[in-house]
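note to self: the first set is below, dont mix up w the second
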Amino acid sequence: MSDRRNLSTCFLGVLLAAVAGCDEPPASADQDVVPPEVPTTESQVSEAALTAPDCRMLTTASVTASGDDGDGSVAANSQDDNLDTRWSGPGKGAFLIMDLGASQTLVGTTVAWHRGNERQNHFVLSTSEDGATFTQAYAADSALNNQAQTYAFSARKARYVRITVNGNTVNDWASIAETRACGEQTVPPASTADSGPVLPRLPYLQSVGPTSAIVVFRSGVSCTPFVRFGEGTLLARTATATVAGWRHAVKLEGLQPGRAYGYSVEACGSVTGLRTFRTASAPGTRRVRFTTMGDFGTGGSAQSKVMAMMNKPEWRGEFLVALGDNAYSSGTEQEFQDRMFKPMGALLREVPVFPSLGNHEYVTNQGQPYLDNFYLPTNNPAKSERYYSFDWGNVHFTALDSNCAIGMASSDRCSAAAQKTWAEQDLAASALPWKVVFFHHPPWSSGEHGSQLTMRRTYGPLFEKYGVDLVLTGHDHNYERSKPMKGDAVAPSGTRGIPYVVVGSGGATLRPFAGSQPSWTALRDNQVYGFMDVVVDGGTLTARLITSTGTVRDTLTVTKSLPAVRTSSQAQKLEPMETVPGPVDDPAHMPESLRVRPPLPPADRLEDVADAPEPPARTEAPESE
């Protein structure tokens, strides 16, 4: 360490920290401390190079900065293709300017942040033709990882790119290992039209997290397909299926949180057109939007109208939470194909679905076709997809199997006690400010089935203890929202309660209410089909019932004060979701269940969606409440 460095560090220490002496001067806020007895030798330098598959990196003619740390972390280090060096500049608003030498078409900027897995940087990207007047192109917070992050913006002509850093979650320094401007694509965008033989099942998205996603589809012949993917329309990366067969689940990894990705499937001569999806936002992201509904899998006209409205740009969520009875009437393989994946194919190609088991799925082998068709998180001790949880931005979601909880599962498939133990641990462990729980059988309902008291008495106390904000259910074919509930009654004035919402209006034939409206019901409706649009924005959750004609039938608002963001927990969350591999086919023989059969008619009649008897001692008629 030079004498100049000792003096400057001591001087800063006196001014900023009022230290008494400088016998052992502290490192500046952005320095890596290397023990003096272990000098860095030439053989120890790794000189890792910058790689950014989602960016056609342009050559920088020259680079300047607002300042540096005075110890060699200069602007030129950001262009030396060595991730072990960096530019570091002090103070909020520190900036780095890349001069490309001439005006070019720019579509983004790639940045590899120094210690990016520890610090979330607050930054603004701006462009300029003359180096004097800059126009903002992008503003965000960096993701918490060490990978190069590409930030795409609308195409524009510019010679200069400025990166302004307004501090980070650790200190007020700007620190960049490598950065490049991204030029216009040199290849045409992928086609949006499908070509070749039509896939028996078009791609759908599963277990989409901050850094990974699964693309699931089926082919007409046995092969080993692959998926091209990348940010925007530049599909520069490839992921290949691990085994040959007819049922395919290809995992995309190395993604960035809260970003739009394009993908195209190439399978056995079939090529699907470009489709896009959005990765889960990182914990700490204040805004989350999703849709939810249950009792929809009929393949009929009402379901079709709800799907058409949900797929409109103004109502499309980042993901769909499905509340059970996804495939009437028995949850068979063909019913999933004809009554869920075909009518919902256009939506599910771009919007991931996180489902829960309904009682109709349990009719066939206690939900085995459901488990074969979905690739869900396996983050419970049993590694079971029957119940699971995931995070999206500032919201923690917990999915339960209410069939298991009320005694409809055999012990070898699902233990009610084990699910309850896991649910309590899961809710207790989440530090996110919002918690949403979803399952099929409603603890509060005045519909045909009434309230499911086993679910209420078993899980209601846990929901209240661990601060659940909203409970979403289906089962009864209507819409009903409770007032904030606590225990077996409406929460007293001035105390916190939980709203329970039945959204059983997704497409199955609506049913009459069993009696008059109870005093605990805020609003109920059995005349309209629809779904809920839920937006969490900072400290406000707004949930609206959107009918199949596009009207807003009901609105729920929940507000709360948000705690401070905990960056250490954010870094731990950004991991690929763990999922089971799913069914593996013999590549030489098509499974019998996948053979083409005449399409099923819609399940639009009351008898098509009738329910099998449930344990009578565990429900209570609505009028007794």
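second set (the one i keep forgetting abt)
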Amino acid sequence: MTNQNQNQNQPKHKGNQFKRRKKPAQSNKTNEQTHSTTELLKIIPLGGMNEIGKNMTVYQYKDDIFVMDCGMAFPEEDLLGIDVVIPDFTYLKRNANKIKGIILTHGHEDHIGALPYVLKEIDAPIYGTRLTLGLVENKMKEHRLKPKMITIVPGQVIRLGAFEIEPIRVCHSIADAVAYAVTSPMGTVVHTGDFKIDYTPIDGQKTDLHRFAELGQAGVLALLADSTNVVREGYTMSESTVGDTFEEIFRHASSRIIVASFASNIHRVQQIINAAAMNNRKVAFSGRSMVNVTSVALELGYLKVPSDTIIEIRDIDRYPENELVVVTTGSQGEPMSALTRMANSEHRQMEIQKGDLVILSSSPIPGNEKSVYKVINQLIKKGAKVIYESLADVHVSGHAKQEELKLIHTLVKPKYFMPVHGEYVHLDRHRQLALDLGMQDKNIFIMSNGTTMEFDQNGARFGKSVPAGRVFIDGLGVGDVGNIVLRDRKHLSEDGLIIVVVAISSSTGELINGPDLISRGFVYVRESEALMEGAKNVIEEELKKCFDKNIKDWASLKSSVKDTLSQYIYQSTKRSPMILPVFMEV
């Protein structure tokens, strides 16, 4: 990992790539009036609009482009067999020679997960904070990629073509998160990334409200702000409140403690370690992502661990049960996660046993509720005591609620506002919040993925849209599974498959053998002999009709067999399995 800094506090400036922080021009209006109509600042979201996840935003001025974040999303239930969903980055491939860099706000998968797939198509340097790039470097090793990675710290100014980009410290549910002030010839844009305002953060690094206020005083053209928690009133609780809860729970526990959390929530893991150390417990990590992320955090100094506290998961049997804490993945009920495998007695090193205390230190992501409660039920059946968010303060969000968002709007005082990072209900509620604060409706824009926002001296407007959408990752395949394949998978999952095998003479073109029927996911053949026999008769009759009409090309024969058999099966069963005719020439 290339590091342009000697340490976090003393940036090393090389050439004109990094500059000292400076105040933006005092008025965006002045900037706007001095440029011709052909000079446009474009902001183009390729992901993160009307959805949660796969955040990616393009900033463009003339022939200079940089990309803010490069995230993925996990598939919904109807995306059968899909592993990962990433943004459609066709626009970036078409403009690859203009891309100056990829800027990262923080290290969550919904902001960095698409990097390996994008970097295989586009050669661009990556800019991010130390922990963010540490997590990216781990990901790059898995994909055997070696991009140029440049470490930045809040307060530096990165120059990429016509843009000057300044990271600003913010709090989130992962360490080293930043917002950005993006200064262009058209004015300054503030992009918050994911954030909350925590006055007592675990690492002491508070959201830099002073810098937001300075930017607002100097003049901000546009604000792009996180909308994830905008439907919730009040303030998001401090992460430190979770630590107090852990300490209380650990103090009174007399059995093994298993805590499930997001691997990337380093502050949460730190508090678990602190509570364990205070109660003379050893800590073991379980789950591939948990082991990988904590290893990076330990190496970079983001986790402070007392000596002899960490043990290997394979060594837990050497210690009394009341001296153990296991930190694991699986807080969202993922089928292959470590916690789920423990609950199902499929984990290689340990399984849940009667008396264990299991803490789910997260809230279910919308859509995951059923999976989470399935795991909770299984844990309770095993005799474990389970504590989750509705029972105790074992989780707080990393996203700003309404009052925190109001504060950022008030400090930044943007001319234009674009809510980002949320489904439509979140974007629209954030629009209403801005209206309540006195912003004019004409200056608020709700965008969709692929929408272009254009800024010039005449103001802001929607421009021509660019290609956008979802690219599906299935195994090693990128984009080779589309709507037609998914439709077939859905069809197979709902109605099953019938394969019709027929042998035809190569010399006479007549039926020699068959038809033989193979059923998969439709009916059990041995228990449906009458149906199968009727299907064979229907096929034979249809083939005979075709032969009598001198129809011998296989495409026509297959189509006739498929249509006739489909009608027969639907009339007999009111079901429509996929039918696959296989003709062999003998």
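remember for set 2: The CA atoms of residues 58 and 67 lie 5 Å apart.
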